[in-house]
Structure formats: C-alpha cells, structure tokens
Specification:
This protein has 360 residues and is of the alpha/beta class. It has eleven helices and 14 strands. It is globular and about 60 Å long. This is Glycosyltransferase.
C-alpha cells in the first residue's frame, strides 16, 4: 500500500516552496502519495510544478514586514505572539488532517506546529541559529525556542553540507546541534544542462517580501535600461500571475518561470543578480553560476549570508542602498569567483529521502 506524505512549506518568500520541489519529486519516485498544504502564491507555484497533487488549504504565518530595513528585525520579533497562535492552529489542523486523509508522515519546511505523536514528522531548516539585528542574547534565546520545537520532531533535515565547506556558515553549523540532525547536502530543483548557449548578459531574479521586492525590481529595471546593448531577463517572482513585457530595448521581463525554464535561463546567463535567499544560493551553487547578491535590507540572515559568501569568494554581495549595476558588473569582471564544487554531493538528499520513504 502506498504511503501518504504531507509536505508543508513555510509561507516566508517562495524559497521554502521551491526547495521542497526536489524532495517532492524524490518522494514520488519512491512510490509515495504526496499531499501539499499551502495557500496563495506558494500553492500556485507548487500546483504548476505538480498539477496532479492534491493541495490542502492551510493558512500561513502571514508575517508582515517593515517598509524600512532598519526596523525589519524588530517588526518580526513583535509578531512572535501571532506565530505562536498559528503554531497552535497547525497542531489542531494536523490532528484532523492526519485522521481524515490517512497521512503516514509529515515533512514540515520550517513550520513549527506540524509534529504528531503517532507518525514520523520531519522538520527542515538551515537556520539552527537564527540571526537577528540584536545579536548575542536574542539569538541564544531564539535558538533555545527553536531547538525546543525541533526536538518535538522525529528528525531535523538541514539543507547544507556538514563540515568546513558549506553554504550557510554558522546558521546551520552552530556550536551545538539538535540530537536529531541530518545534513541533506545542497537541495536544488535544478540540474546542470550541457551545451546551453549564452543568451543573456544578466538574469535578474526578483524575490522576497514587499515592499522591498518591488523596490529591487524598480532599481534593476531602471539601471539595466541605462546600459546600452545589454541583454537581460528579469523574473519578477510572481507565480500567481502570467505576464511578459519589454521595459527597455534588449530587456525582457516575465512574472514567473517554471523550474525547467528557469533552470535553462540560469544556464544561458553570464551572471545572475538576486537576493541572498538561501534557496537561490543552493541553486547557484549547484549550477556553478557567478552571482551578484543584494540582501533584503534589514533581514539579518540574508545580510549574514551575503557577507559570509563574499568573504569565502563564492559570490559578490552589495547592500541595496549602495547598489550600482554598472559598478557591480565591472567588479564581477575582476572578482576571483570560487566554484563551490562538490558535484558528487549535489544529490546526497536523494539517499536520505529514499531511506525515509522505505522506513514508512
């Protein structure tokens, strides 16, 4: 009898939904029946990738964001009571859903309330240490709360590599790990494509919470239009829309690309410009792409990742308020980009998922 696995991504940007795509594919390959719980653009994205999969409605945490990056972290902390209330709702919803749909296991991508006493439940996170603008004491308190919930799950899957050569730095490699931790390696829906010819000078991937998503879009559109003869593709990160435009000569803008088309567009681009969202970083690492990162202002995790990965020589990182496209492209010409390497480990997650499916 086929086992039913429920997969639930966090509704914080699209990265959690997109990084779950390879996990869902592997569960299907292992003969499992997959159900997804999501709403809004996350449900839209996953239904495009998996039109035959049932998507159950489950409200997200609906985090709101400050207009100014300076207050980003403070506004998130103020919403902890709202998150706690959502976690309690998740618990009641999951008990009912397991019974109604005969769920055999749950994979929760960074949603804290989706553990159940009678079935295996996996928690996915690359943030074992949660960065904040306030540093030390706040981060230690949040880590204790984080581990308290992680320890309620059967296992914690970390999408990164163990050891020195990794993408997440201290975020997924703190001094002490939860006892149930397994590293998945890089978790990307993309595959290197041989023989793809160069089509774009720049691929600009727009993502993240509003209003900063739109601000980045406007910055890049304006600055791309100022460079004569440039060939660029802008992907707006709006999977619930379907539009295409040409805002300036040589520049194409689309609302969304499915995984296969975005995979091809990344391979056909000389350089990628994007936020330093963790899923995008895994995609870049797997495809061996050069990139210019623009962390979301005030988002401590992205700011840390941008700085850390530039220090390691993997990518260039520029704060949004200092970003000048031509200057960044000139810098990329001389920057000694270091390849992440480890192609033999890029599919390590498949072994973990297959063993999990076999254990059900």
């Amino acid at each position: 009898m086929q086992k039913k696995v429920l997969v639930v991504p966090l509704d914080w940007g699209l990265g959690h939904a997109t990084r779950d795509i390879p996990l869902i594919r592997e569960l299907l390959n292992a003969g499992c029946v997959v159900l997804i719980a999501a709403e809004g653009k996350h449900a839209a994205l996953l239904s495009r990738e998996f039109p035959a999969i049932t998507i159950l409605p489950l409200p997200g945490y609906n985090i709101t964001y400050s207009k100014k990056g300076l207050f980003f972290g403070l506004k998130i902390l103020k919403q902890i009571p709202k998150i706690w209330k959502a976690v309690r709702h998740e618990q009641a919803w999951l008990r009912k859903t397991v019974q109604e749909h005969g769920i055999n296991a749950v994979i929760s991508d960074n949603r804290f309330g989706l553990y159940h006493p009678d079935i295996p439940c996996i928690f996915i996170s690359h943030q074992l240490l949660i960065k904040t603008p306030f540093g030390g004491v706040t981060e230690r308190i949040l880590q204790r709360i984080n581990y308290k919930y992680i320890n309620k799950y059967s296992a914690c899957w970390v999408p990164d590599f163990p050891g020195e050569y990794n993408l997440s730095g201290v975020l997924a490699h703190p001094a002490a790990l939860p006892n149930n931790t397994t590293y998945l390696g890089c978790l990307s829906r993309f595959e290197p494509l041989p023989g793809v010819s160069r089509k774009y000078d720049v691929l600009a991937l727009i993502s993240g919470p509003e209003p900063q998503r739109t601000r980045l879009e406007n910055i890049l559109k304006a600055q791309l239009a100022e460079i004569p003869g440039i060939k660029a593709l802008i992907v707006s990160g709006k999977p619930d829309q379907a539009s295409e435009a040409a805002p300036a000569p040589g520049i194409t803008q689309v609302s969304h690309l499915n995984a296969a088309d975005l995979n091809a567009a990344m391979q056909a681009s000389d350089i990628v410009i994007s936020r330093s969202g963790y899923t995008t970083l895994m995609d870049l690492a797997k495809l061996g792409k050069k990139a210019i990162l623009i962390p979301t202002p005030g988002q401590s995790e992205q700011e840390y990742l941008g700085k850390h990965l530039m220090q390691e020589g993997y990518f260039i990182s520029v704060p949004q308020h200092k970003f000048k496209l031509q200057k960044a492209l000139d810098q990329a010409q001389s920057f000694p980009f270091r390849s992440f390497g480890r192609p033999e480990d890029m599919n390590a997650y498949k072994i973990v998922v297959r063993k999990f499916a076999e254990s059900l």
